[in-house]
Design a protein that fits this description.
The complex is a heterodimer.
Chain A (H helix, E strand, L loop, with lengths): L1 E4 L3 E6 L9 H10 L2 E10 L15 H11 L6 E7 L8 E7 L10 E9 L3 H4 L12 H12 L9 E6 L5 E7 L2 E8 L6 E9 L5 H11 L3 E8 L6 H9 L4 E11 L3 E10 L3
Antiparallel strand pairs in A: 1-2, 3-5, 4-5, 6-10, 6-11, 7-8, 8-9, 9-10, 11-13, 12-13
Helix pairs in contact in A: 5-6
Chain B lengths: L10 E9 L14 H11 L3 E6 L4 E5 L2
Antiparallel strand pairs in B: 2-3
Classes of the chains: A alpha+beta, B alpha+beta.
Amino acid sequence: SSLFVYPTKIIIKTCGTTQLLKSIIPLIHYAHHLGLTLSSCRYTRGSFIFPKAQPFPHTSFKDEVTYLQDTIPPNLCFRKASIMPSKSSSHSWHVFTANSHMPYDHDNELFTMEICMTELDPILARKFFRRPDDGKSGDSAGKEMTELTGINEINPDALICDFAFDPCGYSMNGMDGDWYSTIHVTPEDGFSYASFECVASVNSNMGHVLRKVLQIFRPGTMSISTTCSGYTNDTWTQMASAVEPLGLKRRSCTMDQFPEAGTVVFQTFTSRRK
Amino acid sequence: MAVSGFEGFEKRLELHFFGDDPAMFPLGLRKLDFESLEQVLEAVQCSVVSAVGNSYFDAYVLSE
């Protein structure tokens, strides 16, 4: 899980049975004491592998949306909730956005890319298990995994903060100027999962990044969601072009527009070996 | 409930704020003390395990 704190923006990404939406009320409270008012809220997630294990308000997307509607202030009046489907009923992208009249600092040149991967190559996934009694701290073992797996080669310019959990699992945050990236891995066979997320310029070549990510995990199934503040989100075509030569075939592509929030494109891919 | 492993799929929340006093913006939310962040994360049910920052933002690796 990761938290990013910018002067006027906060991003929290959590897995497991965390109750992420319960952060909204205290964050609004603390921001208010700093003279800041909420102007935009975006909540996204994929389809849970174990939905029945989730606590309220994450018990269903309907419950999450109800909680969000009741929690965020009324000045965020441009609201939309959507479940973006794929060809598989077990892979949908859930999106809720809410924005105020007052436009926040839109940067139409940037987009956010969220990649979710399952059915990781078991040999590669083994690299995210710690050796028993390795005597290392989480930071030290994380650094070793970052180098062993090639994660440090995704963006060689990034400052990386990494952590290896015991007995397995890995998280890292990358910082390159004001751009972040983050990776989270649960490598256990049978429900292996990895995510990669970054913010980038619509003009940047994401081919190298996607190639490295796929080499590190070799997933059987992958989804890519891109969110662009502007209404001209064509970065998704770049993603598909970069991914398909690497042995993944696109199975679905869904696009939706969110008022004052931009365009979200959700694509799913499966390995040609399947 | 079915036998379950660890849920990998994340929930992601992005919040943007604005302020009337631009003088607050250079640090803004980065002025939140660590204790306040810990209280927010307590509500979420996770905690900070590692942290790093640069001149633009702060990044925290969380438990879970």
